[in-house]
Amino acid sequence: MLNRQRLFWALATRRQLERWEPLVAAFLRDxxxxxxxxxxxxxxxxxxxxxxxxxxxxxxVALARSPASNVPVNTDMRADLKDGRDLLEHxxxxxxxxxxxxxxRPPPRKSGKSFARRNPGLSPYWWLRWTSEEGxxxxxxxxxxxxxxxxxxxxxxxxxxxPGLRGYVPPRAASPWLYEGG
Length: 182
Hints:
Elements: H1 2-32, H2 39-64, H3 75-89, H4 91-99, H5 110-118, E1 130-131, E2 135-139, E3 142-143, H6 144-161
Antiparallel strand pairs: 1-2, 2-3
């Protein structure tokens, strides 16, 4: 059952990244072309970003419950994924703190304080973050590229130990990026 859960949440996270990353790419193309962002695209990106963080959080839980897993998870990425999911869940307590400059008050919850300490001056409520160094970033310290590597490692580890699950792995969507190094 733990293999199933690790693979299920790795695939769910990948599916959400496959939905979110093309939206980031389209937003970036519009920005570079000097066009205004499509409002519907921005909100769709927010939805896909949210559910990518939910799926990634469930993956972290499945990995933590699986003593057989040898897949390492970067500490900063783990913290950003967890805090990002928590901050989305408790948006009513945190949104104003992170979306107003200067912040009206310190973040009230542990996840907000943790995020603000690791990412000073940044907001967890931005779903179209991209940098030339990291590419699309689900959170400031959780790039899509690094998350894909984690998902690949989890999938490989699970399928090595339980090849019967191979039939549940859907084909991957094409990448929206012109070049993926790595």
